[in-house]
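Subject: Alpha/beta hydrolase

B.,
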Amino acid sequence: MTPELLAADGIRLDARLHQGAEGRAAVVLAHGITGDLDELGHFPRLAARLGERGVTVLRFSYRGHGASGGTPRGVTIEGERLDLLAAARYALAVTSGPLFLVASSFGAVSTLLSLPLLGPRLRGLVLWNPVLDLRRTFLEPSLPRGRELYGGAAESFARRGFLRIRDGFDVDPALFEEFTRHDPLRALSGWRGPALIVHGDQDRHVPCAVARATADNRPDTVFHVVPGADHGFRPPGHARELIEVTADWLRSREQSVAGVR
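Prediction pasted inline below.
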């Protein structure tokens, strides 16, 4: 089903609703930068897996991504927060069960910064290769792929007025200015709910060490390493492990809060 999904500022968001059983959990899937509601095929596969158990899943494309309104140069953290909140509130309206969020890469930023606004029905969070440290990922990138993509950001902004992350996806300096003001790691540390973090130990884009240290120092947090996996979990074996670990954790959390078998 293709729902009518609008952010609070009127941006239309492309979305797919996989309707489950009434009273069961709702899971919202948030993709990374330059991605879309498919997230390299992982989101449809996870939705199908969860749908076998009657779970409702909503996946959507952030503004400036996929078939959603807006442009890449209009992408901001604040805009993505509006998009994430619109998706979460829609999911809460179509089922009375608990809410869970699955956020991939940069999708973790808007997700984590929105946690205080999502209310008591939010009962768990899954993060895939999450961006937790904006400085080490974008502003002073510590890994090879990050340096390749963002190392020349200041020069590109000064010379061209934008930074090209990939063909057809240019971002504005306003996004990088936001990186100096927001702290998704602090937002996660301040939230009391359970979390699963899945990270590839060969990620060349987002530091696995940050995610590991976060999980080690946060209560009720499971850290799962996918050996040999880079940022996108592209090889079939890595993708299967990602989906299985995520689905199993979500099942166990739903059982713990709702008594569902």
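The CA atoms of residues 46 and 175 lie 30 Å apart.

T.
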